[in-house]
From TrEMBL:
Region spans: Disordered: 116-137
Gene3D superfamilies: Medium-chain alcohol dehydrogenases, catalytic domain (3.90.180.10), NAD(P)-binding Rossmann-like Domain (3.40.50.720)
Biased composition (Polar residues): 126-137
Organism: Amycolatopsis taiwanensis
Protein name according to UniProt: Uncharacterized protein
Amino acid sequence: MIGTGSAISSDFLRGLGAGPVAYGDGLADRVRALAAGGVTAAIGLRGMETMDAARELGVPDNRICTIAAQVDGVPTANGAYAAPGALDEVAGQGAASQLRVPIAVSFPVEQIRRAAERQADGTCPAKSSSTFRARPS
């Protein structure tokens, strides 16, 4: 398995068992160097770069999935096509500590713009979150 990400996420990707490859110009060439047998499938979780590299590497559109864009011929993973019971399964995995959702940094809701900027700027090795507090009664 190969994981693409910012340079700061390399150790995190290795911890998941993936060979890390940095985003940026030449992504397809770097993936090709690690995947001697070729690439059979890809999922893009940020932008279009992974999808474009997968196509360049000859991955058929029906073996590419993205949450970042809607592209003709490429399946989109947005929950609309989730199998019945999928949400319950994921919730159960979370409750049983079988699901990893690393949070690198948390911001109060008043700083939600900063949270989104931090997530987008590539310096955050995992997800950022915003904390919501109930309004006083």
